Amino acid sequence: MTIDRNNLHSALLRLDGRGYKAYKDIKGSYNFPDFTLIIDRVQGDPFAAPSNLRLLVPQSIALFPPKLYRSPSREIALRDFLTRQFDRASRKISIRRGTGKSGLISIARTGQEVLDRSSVFIDDNNIEVRFLVGLPARGRTILGRQAAEMLCEDIPEIVSTVLLYSSIDSREIQNHVETVEDACWLRQNLSEKGLVAFVANGSILPRRSGVDPRPLLDDAVAFTSPKSLEVEFNCPNRGLIKGMGIPQGVTLIVGGGYHGKSTLLRAIELGVYDRIPSDGREFVTTNPAAVKIRAEDGRSIAGVDISPFINQLPQGRSTESFSTPNASGSTSQAANIIEALEAGAGLLLVDEDTAATNFMIRDRRMQQLIAKNKEPITPFIDKVRQLYEDCGVSTILVMGGSGDYFEVADTVIAMDNFQPHDVTEKAKAIAKEHINDRIPEGGNNFGKITPRVPLPESIDPSRGRREVKLKVRDVDEVAFGTEDIDLAAVEQIVDTGQLKAIAEAIVYAKEKYLDKKRTLPEILDLVMGDIDSYGLDVLTNFPQGDLALFRRFELAAALDRLRSLKVLPSGKV
What is the Cα–Cα distance from 131 to 128, expressed in whole angstroms? Predict the structure, then answer.
């Protein structure tokens, strides 16, 4: 039953001075002149997680033009824009009103990426906004008058400021929506031109610092494609756009230190996401199935067939179903590649700075000193072309220390002061002049990729008597039951909302699809299919506003790093 706004105001005044748990009485739905306020969950004390609230604003009042959300990409962009507007307004209006989280009004935090979030929804009938409120108290005594001000005065002010189309700069919102739509269109059309990535002319790739992802303002060099690699697209909104196209196959990014090699790769790896108009990389787009690969000392590995890269381990240990709680650099990088391929990766991104040296290259001198029958590792240089020719998987590598890769590359891009130069012909000429006499290793084919079957009993989100215990720490770790999933090396997770959604998705997968028969790729298909059909709400028991969409690759990566995980190869269940 929906109650009038005045009843909420009166109820909060009556609660003034009572114990905090009495706030539970206000759970419900309340009619305001221009919107409905829904209180879904009330926190247990002022130091607990803030209360969950929702707003429903009828489109008859909000009046957002349907053209702003007529396509999936436009809708996501508009929802992202409104989330950012609500966040700015709530930060200005929130004031401390007591102890703990008292006085807080907040919504999902946003970064440079435009993500499909559960914070705002829009259709022809309503705008729905999900947010958090720290109901005010002194100690554990309710501050009812301050609560009445927050819910009955501050919230209506936010609605009138950011949730009515007439209150928003129409040019700013149109630019936001059209930028995202164009970037999404570019990404979808890469394969038609035989490309795996595109970097628009004029892009600003350097960031302000390692902890500040905003674009560098001073001394930033705008990106300009070499003519030999320049391609053009006719975008739905901006029309003609030109830039560097990176073709399918094996691409090397070379150059001296501090000239922008890793900066370019970082922009490409995050090009799987759309970005806000002021990011500088908003028209850097990448194959959506691109996965960043690195070495990851100490990670756990569960039943991965790393035999395409590693064989003949001491003591005769098998590598066709390799497990370890403490992987080395080379075994972790091998497992990361095989797991990405198992999940359906179409493009691998590798930076030598974060790779295991003995995994990337074994030169002729080392081959002469250590015979192949004494070396279990087949280096990546001998598998990277097979990956493309046998599996159709392209690779982009940052490589500053080994010219041996010239022979296996299709394209070589040299970065000089953050500007790209096509040096493919020069690199090929050098390779012919200085003949490499190293012996290829690892056979004529890449090898098999064996899907694994996760065992449901090895995935336990409970802790003690509590049914489910999930907690996200920053953007690189999830507490999953009694286990901690370390995702610091999974560089394409960009938001804590993605981590929260991933943790919920693992629980969802266990409850619905882990049956000791389905392979991991089949489970990923089903989970991502359900999210695509029903939204992120399918993962949770009640509406939550702090979830953000993730890719199947990051879901697989989180599951693979769960130290309790046990698997069987498909066909051996």
Answer: 10
pTM for this model (two decimals):
0.94
Q: Is the pLDDT of residue 308 over 80?
A: yes
| Alpha carbon distance 202, 353 (integer Å) | 27
DSSP 8-state secondary structure symbol assigned to residue 370 = S
- Report the number of secondary-structure helices (H) and strands (E) in the chain: 15, 30
Q: How far apart are CA 279 and CA 425, in angstroms?
A: 33
Buried b (16+ CB within 10 A) or exposed e, 109-120: ebbbbbbbbbbb
- DSSP symbols for 34-93: S-EEEEEE--SSTTSSPEEEEEEEEHHHH---GGGGSSHHHHHHHHHHHHHHHHHHHHHH
Paired residues of 132 in beta bridges:
52, 106
Residue with tokens 């928003």: 168
Specify whether the CB–CB gap between 454 and 559 falls below 8 A.
Answer: yes
For residue range 441-489, what is the model confidence (pLDDT) as tens digits?
A: 888 999 999 999 999 999 988 854 456 667 776 667 888 888 889 999 9
Token pair 């002729």 is found at 364
* Centroid of chain to Cα 18: 44
Give the max Cα distance, the chain. Answer: 88
Token couple for 386 = 């097979």
Residue 252 phi, psi (nearest 5): -105, 140
Higher pLDDT, 556 or 541: 556
DSSP bridge pairs for 290: 347
Helix (H) or strand (E) holding 212: strand 212-215
pLDDT digits (tens, 9 = 90+) for 354-411: 999 999 998 887 878 787 877 888 999 999 999 999 999 999 999 988 888 999 999 9
19-74 pLDDT, tens digit each: 999 999 999 999 999 999 999 999 998 888 999 999 999 999 999 999 999 999 99
What are the boundaries of each domain within the chain?
A: 2-168, 290-433, 452-569
Q: What is the DSSP string of 399-412?
A: -SS-GGGGGG-SEE
Rounding to the nearest 10 degrees, give the CA dihedral for residues 263, 265, 271, 275: -10
Q: At 426, which helix (H) or strand (E)?
A: helix 424-433
In the numeric block, which tokens belong to residue 185? 């269109």
Which pLDDT band, with edges at 50, 70 and 90, does 3 fall under? confident
pLDDT at position 474 is 67
Q: How far apart are CA 464 and CA 479, in angstroms?
A: 14
